[in-house]
Design brief:
Layout (H helix, E strand, L loop, with lengths): L2 H15 L5 H4 L9 E6 L2 E5 L1 H16 L10 H17 L7 H21 L3 E8 L10 E3 L2 E5 H11 L4 H11 L11 H13 L4 E10 L2 H20 L5 H5 L12 E3 L13 E3 L10 H10 L1 H14 L9 H19 L3 H15 L4 H13 L14 H17 L11 H24 L12
Antiparallel strand pairs: 1-2, 3-6, 4-5, 5-6, 7-8
Length: 454
């Protein structure tokens, strides 16, 4: 007997056992002090116990385990909600006098069919986020894989053309973005959509659109879209010498508004006025539209590979022909972005070291050095600058003292000044990422391999 069938038997038996009991008695020993209700169809509900609720959760877990293709496209919480909603009417229609053994298989079949129908009806999603991007607002739209960056007016016109925004909403939002007032609007869906646009884009001059062509549930789709959008911003920041500084001005409005960070300082015998600073910059660097076009040309190979990496990210089936390579690049980008966003220098160094480690196939300092020798043409015994230590010595500090000892709890250098090491780690990680992305794009299709070591 399959595990899901046995769980359904247990649910039916537990449901039979509580028949005739009062609502208050069902929650008397429950850690959740309100009635547990599941939909029963036609607007009705069934009150269940903590035991039954736990069994439904177990059933949901078992049913999702049998569908490994859904691992990335549906969050466990979403799947559990679907199971709870779907099984309610089936339990309401079950005969509690009939053998649970006989009822379980057909009930499971109906549940499976209903859940498969929900999955089959999922639609491709498109998420839009306000983003600060450049301090100039006339940069033409550009795309990195499933992510498109557009000036907000260009985006609004496109959505109106596609039918996602009404002409009236388009006109009113343009007025508001232009600094004018728009009169009150009659309550309804269009008023809500207008408010959603203004809240989601905020004061950002650009919109970042993430297109998920495969079917995702709502929460899983949002999480994937956000990851892809943040990594696309990171890819764009790779065009600049210090991506961490650029990313201080490249951010999603979704991640919160810019705010002032203030702290109080007291010195015995003195009155000191404490300073404050912005949590991040209101925009990235200023760049003329034609200059960014030149950067897009210069970075074309890297952006093509970044696009391939992000397309693989938004594909829950991971149907690429070279999953090992793209997963390594994805994780290198994720850790690089974490390093850039991190405030503390030591933890930023950990992020950059992890990014290098992903490119070195997780083979620690030696693997990173082998990768740097292959892609950057340096030797591990070369000095990193005319008066400086060797690349091997620097990597031993970044990876050994910075990453390994810190995450394993054996560091003796917490509280040291890691700013200089952070800067070196960021530059090495940036050069390595760009070289690897460029190499992947230039590799002829006939000689491509998914062996990261090669």
């Amino acid at each position: 007997m399959s595990s899901p069938e046995k769980v359904i038997e247990d649910i039916l038996a537990a449901l039979r056992a509580i028949q005739g009991k009062s609502a208050s008695s069902l929650i008397s020993d429950d850690s959740f002090r309100l009635p547990r209700l599941i939909p029963a169809g036609d607007g009705g509900t069934i009150q269940i116990t903590e035991e039954i609720d736990n069994l439904i959760t177990r059933l949901a877990r078992d049913l999702k385990t049998k569908r490994p293709t859904l691992t990335r496209s549906i969050k466990d919480s979403e799947w559990r909600d679907w199971v709870r909603t779907t099984i309610g009417p089936l339990l309401a229609g079950a005969s509690l006098k009939t053998s649970t053994v006989k009822q379980a298989p057909p009930l499971l079949k109906k549940l499976d069919d209903s859940l498969n129908g929900i999955v089959a009806n999922l639609n491709p999603l498109e998420h839009a986020f306000g983003t600060t991007l450049f301090s100039s607002s006339d940069v033409s739209p550009f795309t990195i894989g499933p992510i498109t960056f557009e000036p907000r007016l260009t985006w609004l016109d496109r959505k109106a053309t596609e039918g996602g925004v009404t002409v009236v909403t388009q006109r009113r939002v343009k007025r508001i973005w232009g600094g004018s007032r728009a009169g009150p609007r009659k309550d309804g869906r269009d008023k809500l959509r207008e408010g959603d646009i203004l809240k989601a884009i905020g004061s950002c001059e650009y919109v970042c659109t993430a297109k998920l062509s495969s079917a995702f549930a709502a929460e899983a789709g949002l999480e994937t879209a956000l990851t892809a959008a943040r990594l696309a911003l990171t890819c764009a920041a790779l065009a600049f010498e210090t991506p961490s500084e650029t990313l201080r001005g490249f951010s999603l409005h979704y991640d919160g508004p810019i705010h002032i960070q203030s702290a109080l300082l007291f010195v015995p015998g003195k009155i000191v006025l404490s300073g404050s600073r912005l949590s991040r910059r209101p925009a990235g660097p200023f760049i003329r539209a034609k200059d960014w076009q030149a950067e897009l040309t210069r970075m074309a190979n890297a952006f093509v590979t970044c696009g391939e990496v992000l397309n693989n990210l938004v594909d829950p089936a991971r149907s690429t022909a070279r999953p090992e390579l793209l997963e390594a690049l994805l994780q290198a980008l994720i850790w690089f972005e974490k390093g850039c966003r991190e405030v503390g220098d030591l933890m930023a160094t950990v992020g950059f070291a992890a990014s290098l480690d992903a490119l070195g196939k997780g083979t620690k300092t030696n693997g990173i050095l082998t990768m740097l020798e292959a892609r950057l043409g340096i030797k591990r015994t070369d000095p990193i600058n005319p008066q400086g230590p060797t690349f091997q010595s620097v990597l031993e500090t970044i990876y050994g003292e910075g990453r390994s000892r810190t995450i394993h709890g054996t560091s003796q250098k917490i509280g040291y000044d890691w700013a200089s090491t952070r800067g070196t780690a960021e530059q090495l990680a940036r050069y390595a990422l760009l070289a690897c992305l460029d190499h992947v794009a230039k590799t002829p299709a006939a000689t491509r391999t998914d062996d990261l070591k090669k």
